Amino acid sequence: MAEVGEFVAVDNEFLIKEMCKFLGFSMDVELEKDLNKGIMPERLKNMFETKGAPLSENITVKKENENKWVITDEEKKDTYIVRKEDGKLNICKEANDHRKKYSDFIIEIYEKWIKNNVPSDIESRIRTLVEQSRYLDWVLYLTNKRYRDHYQHQFNVGALGWFLLQIHVSNDMTLEQKIADRYSWELKDVHTAWWISSLLHDHGYPISYLFSSIPAMRRIRLEFETLKSSIEQIEDAITDVYHYTLCRDFAKLIYEQLTTEEVLQEKVGHGIDLLGFPEIKSKDETGIHDHGVLSAANLALVLKDGLNDVLKEAAKAMALHNNTKIEVEIEENPLAFLLILCDELQEWGRKMIISDDFTSELEQIKLGPFLKKGNGMEFSELLKVKFEYEDARILRDTNWSYELFNKSKLENFKRLKFSKGVNPKKLEFEVRIPSSI
Known about the structure:
This protein has two domains: 24-98; 104-432, no CATH class. Helices cover 48% and strands 18% of the residues. It has 19 helices and 15 strands. It has helices spanning 12-22, 32-36, 42-50, 102-117, 123-139, 151-165, 175-183, 187-200, 205-212, 214-223, 227-239, 244-247, 250-255, 260-275, 291-303, 309-320, 334-345, 392-397, 402-413, and strands at 6-10, 25-28, 59-65, 68-73, 78-85, 88-93, 168-170, 173-174, 328-329, 352-354, 357-359, 365-373, 376-388, 416-417, 426-432. A hairpin with a 4-residue loop joins strand 4 and strand 5 (78-85).
């Protein structure tokens, strides 16, 4: 737990520890007697089943001290920690289990989230979007574009936001309570909106890139008429991920004299109209709708009859997150505010192909200072983030630019408008790079 004025080093290992709490649950202390005897209480075993993590029959229970027990599933090789805190037994998965397989951890988290937070009538559609969008994402690694991952990035944004949601913005209110108060939601609604907006906010990025490649594809097809069947196969593949109304004319765009603007204006506009937020229609400098708007429109088209106010706000946050021309106030749009903030902070661990290596430019950020408040934390008036780059060789190999990075952060952080009534009231960032760069 951070002491007064302490900065938190945020990286994948930090998020694993935080999200293992998300996988956990609490029970009453009456079960302590059985745990002390090395017995697995039947009620506790049943709770694991209810929470979607059934145990095998080969279980061991070991007491480590007066307030800590370790439950090991020998068959599944899973370890759970039981801690006695504030008159309850808090159970969560051991973070060490996931340090070597971060991608497996991501899948476990969103499976847990879907089970606990997504209405059953739209569960399969959300699951498909989360699982399948990564396939087009990794294909972009094969291009010459300076490409960083978006699939794992979306999860890290969600996990960082989950951590921040638990922090107090005032004496009597956490950030998640602030959001619930703004929209008259239950906390569960806040969790649903946050995880949908974070896990899907960039899922329109690959389709945005594909549509921007159409002029080049047109030139290629003039030389290779047999390319048409391959392009049609690509169209079939992307319609498995994105709503068909966004993608079904991909081949037609290449072979007919239609502009992407003519096709997308109607399709994306229809998706945004379903959300009831016409003011968030926007285009980037290339004339293609930006990937945030595409993500929101695709979500609306996929869910359509399943849309409710919570899902609409999630989509609105997705549509706003990349639009640098629109200011976002924490009082008016706290969900979008949090998404933009976490999206800009999440620079660590974003994988890139560098020569024969698959690595990232930054390993962690430092965020704070946070004030200690009981068993939790509170934002101070100033929130500061430190981006500390260490490997000059990697930065040179990826053509990283201090000027472009600094300009981008200034542009996006300036969009965020704070409130006098809550902390933080100001945000600053610092960029440190090796002297040899």
